[in-house]
């Protein structure tokens, strides 16, 4: 198997499996129980929250464990939008047009509830600019939303600049940091934002575990509880905590923090090799997204005149796993909304582009095999 779809999900690494297994067997107590095995599980949870806070350089009191980034994005955005409107601040939200569906569909819901949404499209250089957010801002604007790294094309958005501007304007600012966490060496204490989110399965931990950091600059903007019940997660998200997965997720991020330079170097190396090989084999292609500001592990490539859906089938038969469009759209292969936002004038690009994303186990031999299949596909046409 050649897996080149790490932006969709990552395999759980051995060390993380071990951490989870140990916790499942040895720390099965309910963290809310008052006897010793409950208290020791609670202690592990508290320590994991502290470790995550240290890794991200944020306050442990601002971390909420969730089931993943879809839940976290829904929660952070709805809570801030609805409370800001209730406090009479306005009803207008500005968002990049290239967000994940967990953000976009939340905004569709809010639009139906009477909010006004402005979408900022990438400009002709493939950039989503802070200047465009500022220009679209008006009296009724309450918040801005931008992802750190786009999951389909790998573009890095100017979230640090946006955050400073949002703070100056007293707007809430939400960042989906899913594709940056564990991949980019960022100090999140320098990211001025009122909320950001992460998801374990994007960095070698299991699916179904993630977190939100909520740190409003306006203390009136309290987080609205998501689930009522036994009062876990500071009374904001009740339900017995999934301690083994929390421990596994934090372990995964700790390991990546230690390896960050070597992994980045590895991804840069693979990136150069990929484009060298495409050129050497005279495969007609263009890169999608913003090549000047991107992560080296996500590559979205327009393969001219090749239907991505057909190429994907051939790759699948050859045991090579890549994607076209977003895997998160429940297995569907409709034209990518992200590519439509980038290239409204070039419909061929929407259906003739594929995404490859590397992980720490990816090799040049994987890329060679991928190239062989593209050549086979071209020959068969
Ligand atoms: C940028 C981005 N945001 C949010 C999500 C959703 O995360 P989860 O699978 O944890 O719900 C994904 C997953 O593909 C993503 O890539």
UniProtKB/TrEMBL annotation:
GO terms for molecular function: cysteine desulfurase activity; iron-sulfur cluster binding; metal ion binding; transaminase activity. Pfam families: Aminotran_5 (PF00266). This is Aminotransferase class V-fold PLP-dependent enzyme. Residues 2-370 form the Aminotransferase class V domain. Its cofactor is pyridoxal 5'-phosphate. PANTHER family: CYSTEINE DESULFURASE, CYSTEINE DESULFURYLASE FAMILY MEMBER. It catalyses: (sulfur carrier)-H + L-cysteine = (sulfur carrier)-SH + L-alanine. It comes from Fundicoccus ignavus.
